[in-house]
Design goal:
By secondary structure, this protein is α+β, with helices and mostly antiparallel strands. It is 39% helix and 21% strand. The strands form four sheets. It has a five-stranded mixed sheet, with helices on both faces. Strands 8-11-9-10 form a four-stranded antiparallel sheet, sandwiched between helices. A two-stranded parallel sheet has the order 2-3.
Length: 393
């Protein structure tokens, strides 16, 4: 049995400061990036009562509800809060999969020995979350999500294979919009007059394949009660580095600060020689708010220069001047570096000998024995802001 934990309006609740702040107020998340498409994000229940939905244009939303209050999105706070929720679920023994904030899945069969019955396992999950959540359980991930959305109050909804078939038959095709593989099919299916997953199943696999290709076949399988296996996340060491930027607003200064963060992160002994496959670059913005960007490298990297080149392009996406810059490892790669070209063997050998010498000096005199000076703000009147010491890579 697969369990789905769904926390409605998670990002909006975090940005507003708690579920109590949403009571009776027409609230909506403002567009996350300046200069992007002006559409609201998650909306409160009072805003939904006025006919406002997520993804609606701001002009239309304000026309329907002039009292609508837009709240700046806080992606860093939402990511931190969701990570705490996932860690709480892992604390009860669950191997958690999560592809979006507010929705998590885990297999309950292996937890019966720890908590007893399935009901006790669901109660333990609700207890450790510490916030209102909808919980559903079913034979597949898709059925569990449908059960969670159909649950009422604090009572979890559990369906078996037979019950899930009947439940999916009456479920709206809007549920396909919650899966990345099928979200683009919702609008075309509505134009064809398909309203429920039962009607979609009535079209047949051949018709769905002919019209929509592989996404159509996958959507038909979901409507028929099939789904892919869970892919629980792997537990990684929490490594991060941050640096106060101050009033730095130029791209050159931010690039220098980013280089310092990369050097410090690669020099951490907890890395144990592993490469980095995915990192998260975040910033605290001037005037309030945060910015967060996930960066997945094309190949696992252990070279600081290549990492700086890959990450520096993301600094142009900052919607406002940054006060702090933070770099965090999200997923490690295998140990060792990238394979080098044959003609660069001598240069690589010298770099390896220099790296080994630095490691020997650090082992004798401590981790701060080999440092290099990086110029951050040469025009600053504060000496500590002109030059920053960073570990020698």
């Amino acid at each position: 049995m697969i369990v789905c934990v769904y926390i409605p309006r998670f990002a909006l609740t975090v940005a507003a400061g708690g579920a109590q702040a949403l009571a009776g107020k027409a609230l909506a998340l403002a567009p996350p990036v300046a200069g992007g498409e002006l559409r609201v994000g998650e909306v409160s229940g009072a805003a939904e009562a006025h006919g406002i939905a997520a993804g609606m244009a701001i002009g239309e939303a304000l026309a329907r509800c002039p009292e609508l209050e837009l709240i700046a999105v806080d992606p860093l706070a939402a990511a931190t809060a969701w990570e705490s929720a996932l860690c709480a679920l892992e604390g009860i023994g669950a191997a958690v999969e999560s592809t979006q904030e507010g929705v998590a899945y885990f297999e309950a069969d292996g937890l019966r020995g720890l908590h007893g019955s399935d009901a006790d396992t669901l109660a333990a999950a609700r207890r450790v979350l510490g916030r209102p959540a909808k919980i559903g359980a079913g034979p597949t991930r898709f059925c569990a999500l449908a059960a969670a959305l159909a649950s009422r109050g604090r009572r979890a909804k559990i369906v078996n294979a037979h019950g899930s078939h009947a439940m999916l038959t009456a479920t709206s095709i809007d549920l396909l919009g919650r899966r990345e593989e099928t979200t683009m099919l919702v609008e075309p299916l509505r134009r064809l007059g398909v309203r429920t997953l039962g009607e979609l199943r009535g079209l047949g696999a051949a018709a769905m394949s002919d019209r929509f290709g592989d996404p159509g076949i996958f959507a038909y399988g979901l409507a028929a009660g099939a789904d892919t296996p869970l892919a629980p996340r792997t537990l990684e060491d929490a490594l991060s580095e941050s640096l106060h930027v101050g009033d730095a607003s130029s791209g050159t200064m931010l690039a220098r600060v980013l280089g310092v963060l990369v050097d410090r992160l690669l020099a951490r002994p907890q890395r144990r020689g592993r490469t980095l496959r995915a990192v998260v670059l975040s910033a605290g913005l001037d005037g309030g708010g945060t910015w967060r960007e996930q960066v997945v490298f094309r190949e696992a990297l252990g070279d600081g220069e290549r990492m700086r080149l890959a990450l520096s392009t993301r600094l142009a996406l900052l919607p406002a001047p940054a006060q702090t810059l933070r770099l965090e490892v999200e997923r490690f790669g295998p140990a060792g570096g990238e394979q080098q070209a044959l003609l660069e063997r001598d240069i690589q050998a010298r770099r390896e000998r220099l790296r080994e010498a630095v490691q020997q000096v650090r082992s004798v005199a401590g981790p701060d024995a080999a440092l290099r000076a990086v110029c951050i703000d040469p025009d600053s009147r504060v000496p500590e802001r002109r030059v920053v010491l960073t570990p020698l890579p």
